[in-house]
């Protein structure tokens, strides 16, 4: 195995020995970033790089705290005044490289500090820096103006780390349960939901030559990977996809994006809707439990630094079984409520945001599956129940963003699906989808979870635009 | 922790006890798929679902092999003739549910078999099934005609599993090395490469209302996440992205797709190009080593069933240090070659496919980094070397697909970058990118690796369209 160098930690060395070996090989280089240095048990000479989070210059010493965005932790540099000829460059946000001695810290709240022998200013910062104060709580709206610099804000880099960790946990859950990840296509001539909220795609070349790149019209950005995932599911019993989806939805609110990520799973040989509910509940709790147990430091960094979070009691969702009610029961519950709803609940109509909030309230803020909706409110691919009126499906509603997951048993009966496709005037474009039912069709079910809403739910993030680095929504595609 | 049911394996139970508990709870359900049953050490009553891979009907017994696509393994069902009233439905590709007794198998080549008590035909298959023979080696071109059924072919489901495993390994590598995954946007107004091969995006609504959804023109599909990744890298020292990228490239060959996946990494506080090379070499070998050591079964399934693979000696790439030559050295090498090239190699010109092949040949088919290319052949963002003529960059060429990775030290000097942007007439659109250099700029470098080409390299897959489920290329956007 080839030996790797920092910043690539060889797998067979622990942090300490890795550091030692690096120091030996690269004593004159920037071989550590702040997080690594602050976490190691090594004590001795080293070279560390980072961005200045805070600096205090006293008569005899300067105290400089640097960060690297890889964790919440900062590293304190202690530098004799004689080392620094001009302190004016050492301001918040500037980047430095420090050579010195890593020692146990006598100060409270940190176990290590770096006694500097040499400090190089790598990159200056100037007065136009939008996050010049390290104590002021900038509003999320203000921070969002500087998309290209947002990761410099500790609360936002904490969010990006949490997002990355949640991604890992989701993949881990599926891997542990034998799922195969499938990359469903982004460009497609199918529109799964048929809602007309799709983005169309052309090529710049096409604009000049008037020739379609794909040789056909109607190429769109995917709104959901489901149909394609079902195709893969016809030969692989458990599949999932975790990729971007797009909807040209004009809703300008706290829970919609034009570009967002979806976690979609499809499971063959399933025994009915309850199997699907248990899968979704299991996945949700798996991620919620692991992230709250292991990433408390970043969760605090996210919520303490920002005014954009409103934490709810996530343990309530982890420790209680999610509720299950049918759509019919939900409507009855809403009809009997004394609340003054803007939209009167009615059988056959959609369940609104205000209704969801009420349903969650009477269920002690524990997530609720609403199952078996009227067929006419749902897309063509859902399994028609014996009553002929409802379909075997669910929406999962949760505190915070409301609707988090949608799913259903899929119609696997060739004749019934054919009829539904005809009714929806989609038989021609979805012939391939119907075909799957002709060759070894199996009972199967699947779901789609909005990843950004999941993050809102987990961390109480109020505005969905603050759950990803470069949000896209109506009238906004900056950078 | 809530108890999950099959097909979701509770984390605290091993396969055997899980199976036992499931049998107890769901004795009348389809609770196992073929792979799980064939891998378990449990012996006893169970219910298994799967697709028929082969069936032999003898006078006293039927022998039916079923698969589930979750592994190469099949499970043999032994059924007394009395159990099956009509064998005609039990054909290749049909799906069945079997109740019976899992026992040690007396037959060679399998450790377990299922003695059936009851067989339910879940989904029939018919004569129009395109993969009706389980012995005929269908050509990749033939199989690719049936995109929606491809996962039913064992060699293609093996490819999908390997793709999924490689994805996991890549994420694992980055996680072990403290990288944070960033979702760079798919929709963007930036065109990183400036090659004009971008897809443009509108909305169907826009076609009707003539109002742009994003309130601006020039929204494209990303060609690379690099610029945005660098923005995130300005506050988080190690970041990567692994997502789709799009190029309206008319090349109809074995190594180009219009929609493909890129693994891109950016590393701050880096010490120079060699650090980047070591990272790329380390990542490549990490995945190659792990996948060849652990997934030999699927690699065999992929290459044995198909005529679409041409395996090269991957261990040669794992066990040798990748070569490093400069562009200048590469040109000299090519000029001195006795080969009869279609394109005469010349300093200042690109290195062609035929040239790459020659360079690999004289380097014993071990991957070669070609570094320090002339500035005019490369994009604006690369670090200009001291000579003022070349940039600090690399292409990694490998056996099979040729160019696998491109990367460079990024220009972090504000003044130099500003000049390059002005020369490329991109200053206005990339002002934000230049801005990053104004606030704590650091030496940093990054790379982009084409995931599908990586799979071609790892498994010798000749046609890139066979490395992903739904390929998109010029004149093709089926399904």
From TrEMBL, chains A, B:
Transmembrane segments: none annotated. Residues 160-469 form the Aminoacyl-transfer RNA synthetases class-II family profile domain. Its EC number is 6.1.1.22. It comes from the Eukaryota. One of its GO terms (cellular component) is mitochondrion. GO terms for molecular function: asparagine-tRNA ligase activity; ATP binding. Keywords: Aminoacyl-tRNA synthetase, ATP-binding, Ligase, Nucleotide-binding, Protein biosynthesis. The keyword Ligase applies. GO terms for biological process: asparaginyl-tRNA aminoacylation. InterPro entries: Aa-tRNA-synt_II, aa-tRNA-synth_II, aa-tRNA-synth_II/BPL/LPL, Asn-tRNA-ligase, Asp/Asn-tRNA-synth_IIb, NA-bd_OB-fold. The keyword Protein biosynthesis applies. NCBIfam families: asnS (TIGR00457), PRK03932.1 (NF003037). Belongs to the class-II aminoacyl-tRNA synthetase family. This is asparagine--tRNA ligase. It comes from Bugula neritina.
């Amino acid at each position: 195995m080839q030996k790797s160098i920092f910043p690539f930690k060889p797998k067979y060395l622990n942090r300490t020995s890795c550091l030692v070996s690096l120091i030996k090989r690269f004593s004159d280089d920037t071989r550590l970033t702040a997080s690594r240095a602050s976490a190691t048990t090594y004590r001795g000479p080293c070279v560390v790089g980072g961005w200045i989070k805070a600096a205090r210059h006293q008569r005899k010493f300067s105290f400089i705290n640097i960060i690297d965005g890889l964790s919440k932790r900062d590293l304190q540099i202690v530098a004799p005044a004689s080392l620094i000829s001009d302190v004016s460059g050492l301001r918040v946000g500037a980047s430095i490289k420090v050579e010195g001695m890593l020692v146990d810290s006598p100060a409270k709240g940190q176990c290590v500090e770096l006694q500097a022998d040499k400090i190089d200013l790598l990159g200056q910062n100037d007065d136009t820096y939008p996050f010049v104060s390290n104590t002021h709580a900038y509003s999320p709206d203000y921070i969002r103006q500087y998309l290209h610099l947002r990761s410099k804000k500790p609360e936002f880099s904490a969010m990006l780390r949490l997002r990355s960790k949640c991604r890992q946990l989701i993949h881990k859950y599926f891997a542990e349960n034998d799922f195969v990840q499938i990359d469903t296509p982004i460009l497609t001539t199918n529109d799964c939901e048929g809602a007309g909220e799709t983005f169309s795609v052309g090529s710049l070349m096409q604009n000049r030559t008037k020739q379609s790149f794909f040789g056909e019209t109607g190429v769109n950005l995917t709104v959901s990977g489901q149909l394609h995932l079902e195709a893969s599911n016809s030969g692989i019993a458990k599949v999932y996809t975790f990729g971007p989806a797009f909807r040209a939805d004009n809703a300008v609110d706290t829970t919609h994006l034009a570009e967002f990520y979806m976690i979609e799973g499809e499971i063959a040989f399933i025994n009915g809707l309850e199997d699907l509910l248990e899968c979704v509940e299991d996945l949700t709790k798996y991620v919620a439990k692991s992230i709250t147990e292991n990433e408390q430091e970043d969760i605090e960094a996210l919520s303490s630094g920002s005014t954009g979070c409103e934490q709810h009691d996530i343990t309530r969702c982890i420790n209680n079984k999610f509720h299950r009610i049918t759509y019919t029961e939900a409507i009855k519950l809403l009809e009997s409520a004394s609340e003054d709803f803007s939209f009167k609940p009615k059988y056959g109509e959609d369940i609104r945001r205000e209704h969801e909030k009420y349903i969650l309230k009477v269920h002690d803020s524990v997530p609720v599956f609403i199952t078996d909706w009227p067929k006419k409110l749902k897309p063509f691919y859902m399994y028609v129940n014996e009553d002929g009126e409802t379909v075997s499906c669910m929406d999962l509603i949760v505190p915070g963003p409301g609707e988090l997951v949608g799913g259903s048993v899929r119609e696997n009966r060739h004749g019934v699906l054919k009829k539904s496709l005809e009714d929806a005037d989609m038989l021609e474009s979805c012939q391939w989808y119907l075909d799957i039912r002709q060759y070894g069709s199996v009972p199967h079910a699947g779901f789609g979870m909005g990843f950004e809403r999941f993050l809102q739910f987990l961390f109480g993030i109020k505005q969905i635009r603050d759950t990803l680095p470069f949000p896209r929504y109506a009238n906004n595609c900056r950078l």
